[in-house]
Structures are given as C-alpha cells and as structure tokens.
Amino acid sequence: MIRTLLLIGAAIAAYALTQNHTLLPLISMLILLSLWVVSEIGSFYRALPPADLDEHEYHHDF
Question: Lower CB density within 10 Å: C or N end of the chain?
Fold first, then answer.
C-alpha cells in the first residue's frame, strides 16, 4: 500500500514539475522515488528465507 502511495505522489510531483519549473516538485519527486526504492529493498530482504546457522565452528588446521 505504501509503495502505491509513494508512486502516486511521485507521479503528482512529476506532473507538477511539468506545470511549474521550480525545484520543489523535482526535490519532492526524487525524495518519493528514493523512499519507494528503500521500501522495495526492505520488502526484498523481508522475503528472504532465514539464514541457517552452522552447528559447528570452523577450525583451521595449519
């Protein structure tokens, strides 16, 4: 849900950028897209299976 809202906000900011050539729509669009990327990365890491812990320690015999 949050990703959809972030993308809608970025689309609105992109439209505002075409209507008003100031830095505020550009900055808000970049912030919203950055937040979207962060949420995508977070959902990717949450979807990963848990790491298996090793039962024994590694011993190096030199």
Answer: C
SS3 label, residue 49: coil
| φ, ψ dihedrals at 54, nearest 5° | -70, 145
Cα gap 59→13, rounded to integer Å:
57
pLDDT in tens, 3-51: 788 888 888 888 887 887 778 878 888 888 888 889 889 988 888 887 7
How many CB atoms are located within 10 Å of the residue 54 CB? 7
Measured torsion, CA atoms of residues 20, 24, 30, 36, in degrees rounded to the nearest 10 = -100
State the amino acid at position 15 in one-letter form: Y
